[in-house]
Amino acid sequence: MTDIGVFKVIPPRIRLAWTRFAGSIQSSWKTLVIWTPFFWLLIFFLAPFFIVAKISLAELVIASPPFSNMVQWVDGSVVTIRLVFDNFIYIFEDPLYARTYVNSLKIASISTVFCLLVGYPVAYGIIRSGPVAKPLLLFAIILPFWTSFLLRVYAWMGLLADQGTINSLLISLGLIETPIQMLYTEFAVYVGIVYTYLPFMILPLYANMEKLDSTLNEAAADLGSGPINTFFKITLPLTAPGIIAGSLLVFIPATGEYVIPDLLGGGNVQMIGRLLYNEFARNVDWPVASAVAIVLLLLLVLPMAVYQHYQAKSSEDT
Amino acid sequence: MHGERSRFLSIMLFVGFTFLYVPIILLIIYSFNYSKLVPVWGGWSTRWYGVLFESPDVWDAVLLSLKIAVVNATFATILGTLAGLAMVRFGRFRGRTLFGGMLVAPLVMPEVITGLSLLVFFISLKQLFGWPTERGFTTITIAHITFSLAYVAVIIQARLTGMGNNLEEAAADLGAKPFKVMTKITIPMLAPGLLSGWLLAFTLSLDDLVIASFVTGPGSNTLPILIFSRIRLGLRPDINALATIIILFVAVLVAIAAVILFRQQKRDLLDQKMARMPEV
Prior knowledge:
The complex is a heterodimer of chains A (318) and B (280).
Chain A: H1 2-9, H2 12-56, E1 71-74, E2 78-81, H3 86-93, H4 95-127, H5 133-146, H6 149-160, H7 165-172, H8 186-209, H9 214-222, H10 227-238, H11 240-255, H12 259-263, H13 272-281, H14 286-317
Helix pairs in contact in A: 2-14, 3-14, 4-8, 4-11, 5-8, 6-8, 8-11, 9-10, 11-14, 13-14
Chain B: H1 7-30, H2 47-53, H3 56-89, H4 96-108, H5 111-129, H6 137-163, H7 166-173, H8 178-207, H9 210-215, H10 223-231, H11 237-276
Helix pairs in contact in B: 2-11, 3-6, 3-8, 3-10, 4-6, 6-8, 7-8, 8-11
């Protein structure tokens, strides 16, 4: 190689300096790889939370932006910091907020259970399918995940409406005479959440089940264990990490869901995401919206930490 | 473990897939309905596609959304790939736990929280530095990159752990410097992951309503914002037509990518088989 030939002519001191320079480029390359995305997330993901926390402690003022400055200059030199906990007191005293938080947690948990009840057998069914069907079925699960979330919710508006497909079908079959109200009820919100979040349940379950060792099931069968007993004693415990990951992947975002309660629940179902959005957009009360967000975040910190823990563990396993 | 699917599992597969696909299929069928009332059938027609092509605000929204999606996907793929490399290949480094946490959190964070926090962040930035002067393309793109890069990082991490580091170690043993190993070995092997990461970031951006609603400004309507403002008032046949176009566009895009990835996977398997064959 020619550059090695050139290298030999260069005096040793310069050669040493060059090696050091190249070494520092290598390590600065590594630093660059780590710090470019790290820096981006620190600025655009972490820092904004501190600003929300700050604004949640500010007062509402009629101005643009609609919140007071926490740090104020007095006589040009002294900085006073004013913290106002009014927004949090307001949230805790008004029963509307407490009810809405509880309702959101309830809707999210029940939807998660239904996602699991539908998703678990589907994931297991895909695992047990033949080598040709398996990738196709998996692709069919992933495909709706890629297509628009908003449009999939809209599709249910057409199904559940008073003159919608389900009611028309039931009436033409003579099962009912007047349409059942399904759209703008809590039922519609459950259907919407289970429908849109189902792939999030199936995919982690599938990833977990793929690692299962089928010889364990055969050994259990050889030892006289029935299929149901084997399922509860072997398959279910071994798929627990997948169940936990999938459930959290559904539960956490569903708790803060805005679009589904707004489009399918109408004014009849109050969830915290919708309340927060209205506080921000309609009432233009940003301090209260920020306080609502902070309380929601505190409620979800524990499940998020558990999810993070399982993510870290599963990436170490592989 | 195949060929032993019980009847119960087969039924559940059927129920699950019916549940997933029937609403989308009905949505598409009703886009060809002549009637102005979406659920009342009035005969086949492409009338609403015509209405759609004549509305300039739809085209503006489509263009804005596509512009944001392309810029977002490109930056998110670069940042997400770097993040994935850092997490999988660099071992321990200072701040790794915080970094890992910030890479997972956007996947589950409720959108209303992310949206609100980015909005107040942009407003504070404007008060302090006078930038961003107006909200719209720039602010939405930054917001999208922030959550998309986390999804790309997941795909890249899976691909990196899946492909192992034998080739990288071999190259290093033969004297290649880390930078060269990365550009000559790691990045080319990552290509399928880069493709699916880019596509996922592209569709995530095209799909986002909540975060964009928070960080957008007057006059900048992305496609989901436009659709949402119309369907809040009820069903609309022209939205069914628009939905059909979007769903088919994304499905074709994903199917093409799936075929490319499937071929690549087959080639990888073949390469591995060849590598294991004894030398003749």
